[in-house]
Amino acid sequence: MGDGRLLHPTENKQRFTSVEHPQTNGQAETANKVILRGICRRLEEVKGRWAEELPQFLWSNHTTPYSSINKTPFCLTFGTEAVIPVEIGELSPRTILFRPAENEDEIRVNLDLLQEVHEIAHVKEYAAKARATSQQQQRLTP
User: Fold this and answer.
1) Nearest residue to 81 (alpha-carbon basis) of 53, 114, 112, 105
2) Which helix (H) or strand (E) holds 17?
3) At residue 125, does pLDDT exceed 80?
4) How far is CA 104 from the centre of its chain?
5) Is the torsion defined by CA of 47, 51, 56, 58 positive or negative?
6) How many Cβ atoms sit within 10 Å of the Cβ of residue 93?
7) Which end of the chain is less crowded, N or C, counting CB atoms within 10 A of the terminal residue's CB?
8) How many whole angstroms separate alpha carbon 115 and alpha carbon 107?
9) Which pLDDT score, from 0 to 100, does residue 1 have?
């Protein structure tokens, strides 16, 4: 079977690919850098109890809006903003106005609009990168 005989009857071709694609891993690498930087800062404070601190740090990371697009990673993934644990126990507009019967419909609408949210975030991110590039060019040009 290792000689490719199984592939001939269906005219399929066997191709081997690399597991690593560095050119497509930019976003994951950037996210990992942010997480590692935050963990390193907290490790200094908690002296090795990183396993206990990781969930809080990740929650903080997922619910903090990116400045360039003003959306949280949680919102970009699930189509709605997370209710943070502090809000659950306190009276806030989000908890007071919550209607369980209507919530499912609202979640469906948010998920339908998620592609549009992604596109808007992409445009804002591109604009932020263009601004950064322009500022960098101005610094380099005498």
Assistant:
1) 114
2) none
3) yes
4) 23
5) positive
6) 8
7) C
8) 14
9) 46
